[in-house]
Design goal:
The chain has about 300 residues and is an alpha/beta fold. It has one domain (about 5-225, about 240-305): Rossmann fold (3-Layer(aba) Sandwich). The protein is about 40% helix and about 20% strand. It has helices at about 5-40, 60-70, 110-120, 160-165, 195-210, 215-230, 235, 250-260, 270-275; strands at about 5, 45-50, 75-80, 125-130, 135-145, 150-155, 175-180, 185, 190, 240-245, 285-290, 300-305. A hairpin with a 5-residue loop joins strand 8 (about 185) and strand 9 (about 190).
Length: about 300
């Protein structure tokens, strides 16, 4: 897969930035459309497992896939593994003292297995609701009743781990690996790697939704990456489908929304990112598609393209 050449992106933005946004979103949407077509052609598939490392855009991607499948007449349902977290008080703890939501042991595995078995047998299943504010599972839940032709999309960072899919029929499931796959080559030759891009996304999301600083995100990143290398990436190579979630224009959004925080962050983890972002010009983007995966990381006016 070709890298993104930032000098070329800047040139396209200077000519027609709205066109750049449209083409970038269309390129991603085409991947989702192709995946939906492939799933529809396999009549045995009951479950689509979606997984990927932190800040890959799994939730928005899964709901976009759900939309594409429903547009083709397939009743697709979404279930997020985050709702199967155990209570925060019982979560494992990282060496830094932070609760480890990325651990596979943060998930109520027996309850997930019960749900998957119910899906494969077209039974009623109870889907819990996790409250991230209280750190506990809510009393309320919703009932999912499946028809024989329905499909369930199960999304989470550990979605491809055999501990979920292993005990069940492989013929009835599809595995999708999602992450940014392209590096961004900057004008001075520096490279913002796909891992750098995910860290930037995570930092911005943490600032906007969790009240963290970029330094707070940096302190956790080494431990996050260790979990990914051990428990996520080894299973992604065996995925049936691989989707690239990088968008050619996204650095413009991050420069506009978060440079004021990033430029004063001197954590080693963000040094290369800061050096790369310093080369991104200031472009005013006030609207992005309401279905864009990038809505997970920034807040702009949303429009239908």
């Amino acid at each position: 897969m070709d890298n993104i050449i930032w000098k070329e992106v800047e040139s396209q933005a200077a000519q027609n930035i709205a066109g750049l946004v449209y083409r970038s979103e269309k390129n991603f949407d085409n991947q989702v459309e192709a995946l939906a077509n492939a799933i529809c052609q396999d009549k045995l598939i009951k479950i689509v497992f979606v997984a990927g490392p932190s800040s890959s855009g799994k939730t928005t991607f899964s709901k976009l896939l759900q939309h594409h499948l429903r547009a083709k007449g397939v009743m697709a349902h979404y279930v997020g593994l985050d709702d199967y977290f155990i209570n925060r008080a019982d979560l494992p703890v990282l060496p830094s003292g932070v609760k480890d939501f990325d651990s596979i042991h943060a998930i109520d595995l027996p309850l997930v297995h019960q749900a998957i078995e119910g899906i494969l047998n077209d039974e009623w299943i109870e889907v819990p609701k996790y409250n991230f504010l209280t750190g506990e599972r809510e009393d309320k839940h919703f009932i999912l009743k499946l028809m024989p032709s329905d499909i369930v999309i199960i999304e989470g960072i550990h979605g491809l781990n055999p501990i979920f899919s292993g005990p069940f029929s492989k013929e009835k499931s599809a595995k999708v690996a999602l992450r940014p796959m392209r590096n961004i080559i900057m004008p001075d030759g520096k490279i913002m790697t796909a891992e750098d891009l995910r860290l930037l996304r995570r930092g911005i999301r943490d600032v906007n939704t969790r009240g963290y600083s970029f330094e707070d995100t940096a302190k956790q990143w080494k431990e996050v990456r260790a979990v990914e290398e051990k428990l996520i990436y080894p299973y992604m190579k065996d995925a049936d489908f691989k989707i690239d979630s990088s968008h050619e224009y996204e650095l413009f959004l991050y420069k506009q929304s978060s440079w004021k925080y990033l430029k004063d962050c001197y954590s080693d983890e963000f040094k290369n990112i800061r050096d790369c972002m310093a080369q991104v010009s200031n472009k005013s983007i006030t609207e992005i598609p309401s279905t864009s995966l990038l809505n997970e990381f920034v807040t702009f006016k949303r429009v239908d393209f």
